[in-house]
Design brief:
Blueprint: H1 3-22, H2 30-36, H3 41-52, H4 56-74, H5 80-86, H6 92-103, H7 107-123, E1 138-142, E2 145-153, H8 159-172, E3 180-184, E4 197-203, E5 214-217, E6 220-230, H9 233-245, E7 251-253, E8 258-264, E9 273-284
Antiparallel strand pairs: 1-6, 2-4, 2-5, 3-4, 3-8, 6-9, 7-9, 8-9
Length: 286
């Protein structure tokens, strides 16, 4: 496969996955995605399946369900219907059926305490997700950030190779000392590490990079947590933020992902210690 062809195919897939996550509440169609990528429906569907290994609509449903599973835990003031609609399910019955098929619990059972039983088998893969620290965030409006990015499947130390590739690309593009941002799509207590989605990003301001994978973190009110630690501690903090702080905060999470702006990036530092600001997009409960 030619380099230019590989780049085009990669951009189609990356732009599509970002669009799905950004617009998860909408009725996303094959016609719409093919048109946005300037290819036929057949060509688009074939590229997506070959590059990701999964059917387009299987991925859309999986993303919807993963977001819904997290919101059912952390957004205690929202009804099941509210969350189903926010995640793009137009039929309440189809949401219940799909959710139970994936998680073995109905949304009502999950929201009550089913997620705790499901989570038990997930957190066995971690040393510990417990933390005694009680961290209070700053709440403020954050501006949109345009990013050049590379996706990484799984949350593991191999993320450092993705960062090496991205920073090498930044060097080739003469982007000096870029802001480094990590996007975390998943709640670690309900997502296997191997299935977690991580995105390494650098902030860019110039539209000349439009032929490369570009995403925009939207403007939002965010809870910003200043965190320090070593490899593995980020997941402990995320567990605390999602499962302890958020349900009792007077805020609820949005469907757009959380992200970290690194002051010290443990994936590229030899000592594995980090300093970062963790941004959680939120909405006020009133």
């Amino acid at each position: 496969m030619k380099k230019d062809t590989k780049l085009i195919r990669s951009k189609i897939v990356n732009d599509t996955i970002f669009y799905i996550n950004k617009n998860i509440e909408l009725n996303i169609t094959l016609d719409e995605l093919a048109k946005k990528n300037s290819v036929s429906k057949y060509h688009f569907h074939r590229i997506f399946k070959e590059e990701t290994g999964v059917n387009l609509f299987e991925m859309i449903t999986s993303i919807r369900l993963q977001k819904a599973a997290n919101l059912l835990i952390v957004n205690k003031y929202s009804t099941i219907s509210d969350i189903a609609n926010a995640c793009g399910f137009n039929s309440h019955s189809s949401f219940i059926k799909a959710f139970k098929k994936k998680f073995n619990y109905t949304p009502k059972e999950w929201k009550k305490d089913g997620y705790k039983k499901f989570s038990f088998n997930i957190i066995k893969d971690y040393d510990s997700l417990e933390t005694n620290e009680k961290i209070e965030p700053t709440i403020k409006l954050c501006e949109a950030i345009k990013c050049l990015y590379i996706r990484h499947k799984g949350y593991n130390q191999d993320i450092k190779y993705t960062w090496q590739r991205l920073l090498s690309l930044a060097y080739e593009l003469n982007i000096n000392n870029p802001m480094q941002i990590g996007i975390q799509h998943d709640n670690p207590t309900i997502t296997l590490k191997d299935d977690a989605s991580y995105i390494a990003c650098i902030k860019v301001d110039d539209i000349k990079y439009s032929n490369l994978p570009i995403l925009e973190l939207p403007s939002s009110i965010c809870a910003i947590f200043t965190l320090k630690g070593k490899y593995g501690d980020v997941l402990k903090y995320m567990s605390y933020i999602y499962n302890q702080w958020l349900p009792n905060s007077g805020y609820e999470a949005k469907t757009i992902p959380s992200y970290s702006i690194y002051k010290k990036n443990h994936f590229i530092n030899n000592n594995e210690y980090f300093e970062l600001d963790f941004y959680l997009p939120i909405k006020v409960i009133y």
